[in-house]
Amino acid sequence: MTTTTQKPPIWFWVISVIALIWNAMGVLAYIGQAFLTEEAIAAMPPEQQEIYSIDFPAWYTAAFAIAVFAGFGACILLLLRKKLANIFFIVSFIAVIVQSIYTFFMSPISDKMSGFDTSMSISIPIIAILLIVFSNKGIAKGWLK
What we know:
Blueprint: H1 10-34, H2 38-42, H3 46-52, H4 58-79, H5 84-106, H6 115-140
Helix pairs in contact: 1-4, 4-5, 5-6
């Protein structure tokens, strides 16, 4: 049985590159948080110092890492036109949901978050869902093999 792939339109590539940049920012945020020094925290405003002084559980940090690295890998697979991107986006979304549950319902930081932090925390799962839908469309249209 042979499968044929269709050439994706230009907007597929534009969205894929934007998604890669979005997920690269997530990777940078994770790395920045993972390697944050005491001196860097001390230089922050008191509200941010309070957030970064919280001892996050290991499973939350693991979910953060899985979310950003799976999402970034999914974007690379998307640019390579591989169906496996869809699975990586789903894994990333599940990890994002785990993070969101902790952020909004279990952690002491939800009442300390700025408006920007809250809007980002809400937009991240929405974008994760949209990327799953986008990769599903790519599979259905034959753009991903």
